[in-house]
Amino acid sequence: MPPSKSTTTSTVVSADGTRIAVYDYGNSGAPVLICVHGYPDNAALWEPVAERLAGDFHVVAYDVRGAGESDCPQSTSAYHLDRLEEDFRAVIDTVSPDQPVHVLAHDWGSIQSWHFVTDPALRDRITSFVSISGPSLDHAGYFIRQRNRAALRQLLHSWYIFYFHLPWLPELAWRKGWAHRAFNRLETQDAEEKRSIGDYVNGMELYRANVVPRLIRPTERHTDVPVLAVSPEDDPFVTTPLQTQVGRWAANLRVEIVRGGHWMPRNDPGLVAQLVLEHTGQVARWEV
């Protein structure tokens, strides 16, 4: 389901021909804020946040490949992080070809955005990054290698990742509704009306294409982009240490541990908007 009628909708074409649906909340001339959703959401996740930030930013959201109105490639390899980065490039080349953008991301949106901000080729295209409930997979690979209590605790929280790698059963569970009930026991959410079954089923390819290779063979990925890592303290999927103990990789890092659960953009959009304004305001002061 596309975001509300307050947006304008367009399509950009990624390097491999995948069509990406883009939603523009207006305010041309303001700093551009790109919002990247996670799994199993689509760009509609950002509606309440965008409404609060549209006076300060030119807010743009897009459906990640496999979700919403974007194309759904059939091969697992089409969901590799490098393909997701090509989608991001196609979006920013269209909406902000001459100026760098701010990035706000959640869950798998944050995972892929860490890939973007740690790519030297994109350093001059990104002004700031707000990451909510999503680590870099490479950073996670090094974190797990510590083999301490925090790493073990995160592995226990990540049980569902291994489940998503099973053949046919996860797809069947989403289609039958079993998985919805199971995941709602971990954190209740009322978002089904804005998601399609394709958002659930196609998005599992993100895990299958990226998680195991990155955890087994992580690479050192650094950034000096100013990062705000936001960790909801009751997140049942991503522990605070994994999200916040990344100073080794992010030279300009701020951390906010906040009350709430994983679906913070939906459940507390006002706080998300406040954190974005505070972080980008601080970045602007640094640049003066």
TrEMBL record:
Which keywords label this protein? Hydrolase
GO MF: hydrolase activity
Looking at the record, the residues that make up the AB hydrolase-1 domain are: 31-140
Q: SUPFAM superfamilies under this entry?
A: alpha/beta-Hydrolases
Report the InterPro entries cross-referenced here.
Answer: AB_hydrolase_1, AB_hydrolase_fold, Epox_hydrolase-like
Keyword hit for Hydrolase: yes
A Pfam family for this UniProt protein?
A: Abhydrolase_1
The molecule here is called Pimeloyl-ACP methyl ester carboxylesterase
